[in-house]
Amino acid sequence: MPRAPGRLVAGGNPAGADALAAALRAPSVDHDVAESLTHPFHSYPARLHPATARVLVEIVAGGGSGGGGGRGGRGRTILDPFCGSGTALVEARAAGLRAAGVDLNPLAVLVARAKAWTVSPRRRKELRDAGHMISGAVLAAGRAARRAGAEPAPMRKPSGFDPNARNRRLASWFAPHVRRELELIAAHLDELAAQDAELAAVLTACLSAILYKVSSRTSDTDGTWVDRNIARGAPARLFAQRVDLLVAGLSDFPPGSPAEVFELDARRLSEAIPDGSAAGVVTSPPYAGTYDYAEHQRLRFDFLALRHRELDAGELGSRRSFEADPDRAARAWRGALADSLAAIAGALAPGAAAAIVIGDSVVAPSGAPPRAMYALDDVRGALTDALAVEAWASQERPMLGRLERYAFGDRPKAEHIVLLRRQ
Questions:
Q1: Neighbours of 134 (CB within 10 A)
Q2: Digit-coded pLDDT (tens) for 132-158
Q3: What is the dihedral of CA 150, 154, 156, 159, to 10 degrees?
Q4: Angle between helices 326-347 and 375-382 (to 10 degrees)
Q5: Per the confidence metrics, is the pTM higher than 0.90?
Q6: H or E element: which one contains 304?
Q7: 67 neighbors 391 (Cβ within 8 angstroms)
Q8: Which sign, positive or negative, has the C-alpha torsion 155, 161, 162, 164?
Q9: pLDDT (average), residues 217-245
Q10: For 56-80, how does the pLDDT look when each residue is reduced to its tens digit (9 = 90+)?
């Protein structure tokens, strides 16, 4: 989201259009939501802004659409079929609603489950105690390893992964002492998983949250190598701090069940979400040709031993697909969008609403001029009679580069929210 909001236009049902416009403005006027609850717990590329998600959850749950609340209510489920790191799920749980999410990215599923892990105070205490025990054990092992004659601990060898190939991929990203601390944390989590798989998974998300901070990778979306001087013991201390941050955020949720999160292609929603069971949908599908989540998260996949073959093959709208064959990728993207919207229609209860956040993008195929992808046109073209456009709002986004200025010309690049109603 831009710091300086662009021109905003909206249409359709007046009350719904006003509410969607408010959702687009929310990031520039509400600076606290993004730092609340569990939102700051784990970085994630291009996540839905929490302030926008909060407004949209209110809309689809019947609290501000102006278009009739459908059969929403606190006993029914708010669904995000492209849940990413769980922003909409967090806001649904904060509103006291049931929440369900789907994503093909195994890391997204891991993180979303942790961020919306609304459990009892006793269970949160178990999380904190286990995290600090592991941190303390790793710090003690590090001190012992620095004594004369100490043998270095062997590297962890996750089951089912070639240890030599894994080491080759990880070696350049971590200083040796950092790698050993991280591997020891992971080894303790492996032991914990045999006794309490749920707790170990949440703590694995805590480990994931610090990996790039102690690596030589610049950021999630920038794979440039950068020199970082990480002190001994820093990974273990950062891990404990991340556990504390998560526990504090989880303590702010109202009572209720944790969100259900499924590792699944959004086009196959019916395999996890019963038809007609969702009281509303808040989601942001991938923007065409903009990101490569399989690449952005590869270091985490390798270290955490997360299997990602299905994501590599099935990631929708990936940048790499547009670089290889833009015409074929554009057809595939529009077809996938149509299939996803059909799946959303099937999951929604009659009369329930879906808020779709999607942005224009530019694709730059090798050796060819850049081209604009107009997301609102794609959404409208993908709809069937099962979903009707009730309202929409669009906000111009700054064109930051030469390719964008060339591709968009006189029609501004924009971010859109479309409110759809199940017929």
A1: 25
A2: 999 999 999 999 888 766 777 777 889
A3: -150
A4: 50
A5: yes
A6: helix 298-304
A7: yes
A8: negative
A9: 96
A10: 999 999 844 444 444 444 557 999 9
The answer to whether the CB of 210 falls within 8 A of the CB of 239 is yes
Phi and psi, residue 246, nearest 5°: -65, -45
Helix crossing, 121-145 with 176-193: angle to 10°? 140
Q: Are 184 and 141 in contact (CB under 8 A)?
A: yes
Compute the half-sphere exposure of residue 274: CA atoms within 13 Å on the CB side of its CA: 5
Locate 115 and state its tokens: 């961020």
Considering only CA atoms, which of 108, 76, 107 is closest in space to residue 92?
A: 76
Contact between 353 and 420 under an 8 Å Cβ cutoff? The reply is yes
187 Cβ partners below 8 Å, 6+ apart? 156
Domains of the chain: 8-105+261-422 (3.40.50.150), 121-250 (no CATH)
Q: Is the dihedral of CA 186, 190, 192, 193 positive or negative?
A: positive
Q: Quick one: pLDDT at residue 68?
A: 42
Amino acid type, 347: A
How far is C-alpha 361 from the chain's CA centre? 19
- Which whole-number Å values give the CA distances from 423 to 27, 334, 352, 358, in the listed order? 31, 22, 8, 22
**DSSP helix/strand/coil, 171:** helix
Confidence class for position 87, pLDDT limits 50, 70, 90: very high
Residues pairing with 396 in the sheet: 414
Predicted local confidence at residue 148, as pLDDT: 67
The three-class DSSP label of residue 419 is strand
CB contact at 8 A, 287 and 415? no
How far is residue 416's CA from residue 48's CA, in Å, rounded to a whole number? 12
Give the mean pLDDT of 234-248. Answer: 98
CA quadruple 264, 270, 274, 279: dihedral positive or negative? Answer: positive
Residue 199 pairs with which residues in a beta bridge? none
pLDDT tens-digit series, residues 399-412: 778 888 889 988 89
DSSP SS3 for 394:
strand
Q: What is the C-alpha separation between 340 and 296, in angstroms, rounded?
A: 23
